[in-house]
Amino acid sequence: MIISVASGKGGTGKTTIAVNLALSLSNVQFLDCDVEEPNAHIFLKPEIREKFLAFIPVPEVDEAKCNACGKCREVCAYHAIAVIPPGDSGKGSVLVFPHLCHGCGACSLLCPQKAIKEVNKEIGVVEIGQARGMQFIHGKLNVGEIMSPPLIRQVEDRIDSDKTVIIDAPPGTSCPVIAAVKKSDYCILVTEPTPFGLNDLVLAVEVLRKMKILFGVVINRSDIGDDKVERFCQDNKIPILMRIPFDKEIALLYSRGIPIVQEKTEYKDRFRNMFNKIKERL
Ligand code: SF4
Ligand code: SF4
């Protein structure tokens, strides 16, 4: 079973939920796919045993073969190629913007002159280890690199379907989140009872409904703010899986990189109950 933990915005406690859920279960594989800012390792303190550089193939154009026909620009859905057409000033040329390239391979496949070859561009690293009895994998995107979905896919290529897989997804509702949650059987959306929390929850719900992924909500710091998130969930028949009230002790543990279930063991049962609710729904 693959369970992702996501949130429409950062700072809601998504990693806290993912880490503590993972620590409450057995036979778990934990994937931190928040590759722009992975921080589950702060709480799980894995022993990293393997490390792989992550690459994407980007096009390199052989100017001697290229006739500036423009086909590569046409097929690139990501606007990563510009073509200067032939004219009085010369035979034209091709400009590649590697930071926009998703490595899909369409341009090299469809170039009529076979003028494009693919070269590897390093985008980050995938690290694999062990943490408190579970397999731990995370991706770390290189500083300045913006193309996180290919790295997320390389982390998820290592999913072990014999285990309960917990994925810590990136925050937001754009491409990286979609890349991280799309293999999930179930997604836990973490939110807080504030106008910002509700706004971003509504967006995240829309995305998951379009992707046809089952989901439920965890309300963190549930006793502050207002009741609009609760009402939204009731009106839209969205299950509330768990409510975690604001607790100074939890905030203190977080600031020291200590998982809740390590010190407040009663939370293990609460996370297991949540897991059982998810299993029932599936
Ligand atoms: S498709 Fe090939 S030949 Fe045409 S502009 Fe691109 S690289 Fe040049
Ligand atoms: S590999 Fe795909 S994304 Fe990259 S430049 Fe070619 S067509 Fe565009």
Fourth-tier CATH superfamily name of the largest domain = P-loop containing nucleotide triphosphate hydrolases
Largest sheet: 9 strands, mixed
Radius of gyration: 22 Å
The number of distinct helices, counting runs of at least 4 residues, comes to: 11
Q: In the CATH scheme, what's the topology name of the largest domain?
A: Rossmann fold
The oligomeric state is single chain
Mean pLDDT: 95
Low-confidence stretches: none
Helix vs. strand class: alpha/beta
Ligands in the structure?
A: iron/sulfur cluster
Q: Please report the distance between the alpha carbons of the first and last residues.
A: 9 Å
User: How many separate structural domains?
Assistant: 2
- What string, H for helix and E for strand, traces the elements in order? EHEHEHEEHEEHEHEHEHEHHH
Tell me, what is the CATH class of the largest domain?
Alpha Beta
Protein model, in words:
By secondary structure, the protein is α/β, with parallel strands linked by helices. It has two domains: 2-55 and 123-281, Rossmann fold (3-Layer(aba) Sandwich), CATH 3.40.50.300; 63-114, 2-Layer Sandwich (Alpha-Beta Plaits). The chain is 34% helix and 28% strand. The protein contains eleven helices and eleven strands. It has helices at 14-24, 40-44, 71-75, 106-110, 148-156, 175-181, 195-211, 228-235, 248-255, 260-263, 266-281, and strands at residues 2-6, 28-32, 47-61, 81-84, 93-96, 116-131, 134-141, 164-168, 186-191, 214-220, 240-244. It has a nine-stranded mixed sheet with strand order 3-6-7-2-8-1-9-10-11, with helices on both faces. Helix 1 crosses helix 11. The longest helix is centred in the C-terminal third of the chain and has 17 residues, at 195-211. The termini are close together. The chain binds iron/sulfur cluster (2 copies).
